[in-house]
Amino acid sequence: MVVNSIAFLLFFVVVFLAYYFPLFKSTPLYQNAILLVASYFFYGYIDYKMIPLLFGATVAFYLLGNWLKREMAKEHWKSASYITTFGVLLGVGVLLYFKYLNFFIESFASFFITIGINVSWTTLNIVLPVGVSFFTFKLISYVIEIHREHINPSREFLDFAVFIAFFPTILSGPIDRPNKFLPQLQRFRIFDYNLAVNGCQQILWGMFTKMCVADNLAVLTDNAWGNIPNQSSSYLLLVALLYPIQMYADFDGYSNMAIGVSKILGIKVARNFNHPLLARTVAEYWRRWHMSLTSWITDYIFMPLNILFRNIGKWGTIFAAIINLIVIGLWHGANWTYGLFGLYHGLLFIPLVLSGTFGKNKKIKENKNKLPFIEDFLKMVLTYILVAIGLVIFRADSIQSLCGFTRAFFDNSFLPFNLSHCISSWSSFFLTLVLTFMIVILDWTSRKSEYALYTPSFINNRCGKILFFAILFIFINLTANTTPSQFIYFQF
Hints:
- By secondary structure, the chain is an all-alpha fold.
- Helix 1 (6-20) packs antiparallel against helix 2 and helix 3 (51-73) packs across helix 4 (77-114).
- Helices cover 67% and strands 0% of the residues.
């Protein structure tokens, strides 16, 4: 049951009616209970076998948070540090077991076989829980924020359980922080018409980017990666340049739908994108891309490492940045390509740190024609190309697949450019390119909006907005791929 499905629509209608129109007087407790039941039903509908893990982890960290606060109140700082460390290790342990244990077993077995030592290790029958990378980060941040005295433990277990399992965000984020999310659950949420309309508009935009752009681009990219040796270099180049748009339209599409659904329920969740196509450096790209993850990693990994390495100056910042990006890469999954993807991006930070442009975040200036100046435009193009190269590494299923793509790109003929085996018609191909170009243009024109790829800034009246979203609705019905692909970030 995904957000852009009929099943979810029916599910959400029931939740909405029960949430806002109860048979008796509604309270925050009642609304939170509805959210918790809905969240566990939603999660169980996808993978009911993992409900005990989600619930058990929630109970464990709720108890840890209260225990930690009691020790801090008694000024038992050493015990508090131990509890916090245990909480972090517990959260990391859940990730390591479910997501990386088989990967380590296979990697060590391959290593020993390579050096001539025969081993008979076999992988375990471990099922990867959906959303585990997202809800474990929520759990870890909860104990850290209590230890840093930024928040108090949640008084109500119900509130904390909703924070961890909140159904719009549990599968693919955004990764909310407890200090922003939990206080909202303590207030009674009255239906806000304007906020709900805003949320519906954001859902519609997310559906457009996912169903019309990402799913149509997926046809091109998936077919190319499925038969790399027989593709021309020109087609592989096109696929490499289009994949960043596909990733953006797919993931931002889900984020917008999740944020929109949350708005209808009167809850604001973290922003996840800030027009990453406009980034002029790789550092700026990561400040604009998957912001809830990037800020999480920055606060809890990069900053402590940067302080630890401060005695070696800029190289300390470089080492911290490289480790930071490798962690981000490996967060996506147990595959060497993800680690290489992170290392690649980490190395791109070296010239930025050495030149002193690492932390700069200058506003993009526009000329009299409302376009970026040529210097900024060229930086955007260069950054996009660097990101596209990195996403080739990211997209590869294995190092062998990556090498195969690279070999085919340099060895195969640049022409002919034959797409007949990858597209249903040339008209659908050109329509996909037009929609892709539309994403790029709207990213620029909507750069001053609150959310990425949202209402363009030149549409500043009600009639214009109604027309804009009516056109989107028509596009969705006419151009949405009839065989939609799974959201890319569901696998993480």
